[in-house]
Design a protein that fits this description.
Largest sheet: none
Radius of gyration: 31 Å
Strand content: under 5%
Number of helices: 3
Structural class: mainly alpha
Order of helices and strands: HHH
Distance between the termini: 62 Å
Shape: rod-shaped
Number of strands: 0
């Protein structure tokens, strides 16, 4: 039964393509190059658009990841500087770490914003 279903599907596809091309099965004419290119483009175009969309999403994700890594490079020293300042001034260590990390991340996001603004036309 599966063989019959596949045969029916293949036959219907062949008949549909033959009708779309305007050729009969008895006709021995060859398809010209412009017709072949038009059919190939019509078949491949949705895939090309999907591939371009995937490429754009990946590039945006990579930029976002690079931005967050840059912010982390500023946040980590901020933690250490905040802890050292809190230790020397007699404040709680945890408060120094938190405030230093926040200050470092704010500086990091400012650098990211500045880089994007500088690169954008």
């Amino acid at each position: 039964m599966a063989d019959k279903a596949c045969h029916v599907f293949g036959s219907a596809t062949q008949v549909g393509l033959t009708q779309a091309l305007g050729r009969s099965s008895r006709d021995s004419q060859q398809m010209d190059k412009s017709q072949a290119n038009a059919i190939a483009q019509a078949i491949l175009e949705p895939d090309l658009k999907a591939q371009e969309e995937v490429r754009r999403k990946r590039a945006a994700h990579e930029r976002s990841l690079a931005d967050r890594r840059l912010v982390a490079w500023f946040s980590l020293p901020g933690f250490a500087i905040g802890a050292a300042v809190a230790s020397f001034t007699g404040h709680r260590f945890t408060i120094g770490v938190i405030l230093g990390g926040i200050a470092g991340s704010l500086i990091g996001w400012a650098v990211v914003w500045w880089r994007r603004r500088r690169v954008a036309p």
